[in-house]
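dumping these here so i dont lose them again. two proteins, back to back, each one seq then structure tokens. dont judge the mess
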Amino acid sequence: MSQGLTGTARHTRMLKDDARISDTDVSPVERLNALVADDMAATDRLIHERMGSAVVLIPDLARHLIDSGGKRLRPLLTLASALLGGYRGSGHVRLAAAVEFIHTATLLHDDVVDESSLRRGKVSANIVWGNKPSVLVGDFLFSRAFQLMVETGNLRVLDILSNASAVIAEGEVLQLKSAHNLSVSEDDYLKVISAKTAALFAAAAEAGAVIAEQTPARIAAMRGFGYNLGIAFQLVDDALDYSGRQALMGKSVGDDFREAKVTLPVILAHARSDEAARKFWKRAIETGPQGESDLDRAITLVEETGAISETMARARASAELARRSLAPLPAGEIRSVLADIADFCVERAY
């Protein structure tokens, strides 16, 4: 199922030999996809096979999100991490599919909790099918993920991904508790995004290195890369929620604001506000109601206080930490592209 490093080299040559495609024409995520193309195709086939069920609603609802155009970044990290370690088996494909199922399940649950109406530019599953089916299909995908983990026969990767699943759930509860609460600190916010987003990035990257039986230093390097990439990714997402760029990416602008989530842009803007602005944040986030013009004012305040630029600066710092984490890993095309992905996750905001 895996072509290992030989397949990787061939995909690299194919990409570079095509005169129509250069590094400036494709994103680092697309380049990584090309490097692990056969394994990613095998992962997609396994995903579609395992989301099947005699209960027709399950694959219909799951496919609505799984086939909605996501970049599959988390399973890509698992595949790349395993191939970077010279792995030759097929267990990494099962792990990559499990990672995608965990991610999809959390998205289904998130959209119900957040009462979201849009996901990846499409009407969200909870709007199409309702909340109960979305939650139950999310549970089904979690179960499928654990079946795939068990099939690898590797208790350590089972421990890594099952622990990440528990941490993600804790992060969602923490975020729920922090909504409508302007007293949330930057440390509280970091705990939320560390659990809610960075935990799965870290586990996805670490699991690939573990199944490839890499050294402890290289396993730690991949985990560090995934964790810091996840932090940067979420910081950018939270900044984009107050930016017109969000609409261009197929997402609703101001979802966090309407849901009264206290993200870093709000924390910073509130701390730097004058008395009038603080009263605005108090009403808009804590007491309500929100008016039609409130989102525009919130966007103006986060920009004027420098909250967006500060959030982006911290995202760039996390991306740099991700790049530095790769130092113990063997040099080559995969490591180079992973480093570029760390930069790309910040650059997508521009």
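---- next one ----
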Amino acid sequence: MSLQKQALSGVVWSFFNLFLTRGAAFVSTVFLAKILEPDDFGLLGMITIFMGIGTTLADTGLSTSLIRSVKVDDRDYSTVFYTNLLLSVVIYIIIFLIAPYVSVFYNQPTLTDIIRVYCIGFIISATVSIQNTILTKDMEFKKLTQYQMPATVVSIICGISLAYLGYGVWSLVWMFLINQTVRSLVFWYKASWKPILVFDTDRLKTHFEFGYKLTLSSLLNTGFKNIYNILIGKYYAISVLGFFERSQTFQHYIVSTMTSVLTNVSYPLLSKIQDDKEKLVRVFKKVMTVSFFVIAPIMLGLSVVAKPLFLSVLGEKWLEAVPFFQILCVSGVMYPLHFLNINLLKVLGRSDLFLKLEIYKKIVLLVVIAIAFQYGIYGLLLSSIFSSLVGFFINTYYSGKLIDYGSKKQLIDLLPIMLLAILMCGIMYFSMMLLHDYHEFIQLVVPAIVGSLFYLFMNYLFKLRPIFEVLNIIKNRK
């Protein structure tokens, strides 16, 4: 299979995988939100940082190094496997011991048991990290989809059943653990790779030298990504954190699905052409503009129809989450661009620059949050938009230096798309106002259809390149 067809297949199957698995999980949380209370999701929002930190530390960036490396064998894979597994156990023990102090910090006694049980998940996840890495490196996203689906289906059935039986927040905890357990069993049964009894310290050192900077970067990113949860959970009612957590989950489903597809496919794809600068720039530009063409109208459009969306899907008890969701959608427009630019540094082997960028961005974020926190919950949330914009210019600094495609050139390519997406939002808002007296479902669907048709027509009329790239992808799949 040619590199282009392999990439195309990777995009389709990666998206299909994420759409099915995360889509099914998303639908399940909609049902759970109708059964459970905002406080239950607030409790879960308090502990997600531990899962993120634990998973990051357990991997130490070694899997990323394996994907990037041209020549790897079972000695590399087995060495990284044992390292990840050992680290995951050590980190779990640490989290187990500090759990009571976290409960005291939030003044939520039930958190101790929740943290100790929930975080078992990253030990389970570590047992299949290499199988997942190998399939990603080989761009076998079809197999990843097939292996993940049983875990998704079983965990959703169990989670919803437990919620109906009155288990509250524990239905969310057990749904996650069941997903990880079934996924691990399927991977061990289906994947061809199995570890051998070898541990090569020289190869560990090679991968660690590249990966540890990525780990530090990921730790910074995980910590600061959860800083809103920490501040809201500490200084506001737990129900407010519940509203924020659901809003973030809704927004994150769209953003993370798109970003994960880009990361999963673009990293191994660009790694294969890392030595051909001209081709690297061409492919990078194409991936970036097509991704923005898709994500910008979706995120901005969702912010317009947020109220009828929440009323239709979750009901009136979640209406307080609407402004949270609108702000987060606007801040999420730039996310795929962030990931693509920092992915480029990993492709080029510059994990040192990757770490520098993360440090610069976190310093800016701290300053912004310190100022915004003085203006209440909405000031805090609005700071995410400003931080995202500043983060774009920071992330593109080295792109300009390394491949001569920095922020100015990227913005020139993206500006027409952004203008049409904003104009589309105006059309959607006007349509929604005309339908003010109709059922919320009508207020949701009609503006979405009108806005989408307008956006696609205007892109075609002005002959913007991304729409023709998407049409080629559709045509080549037939």
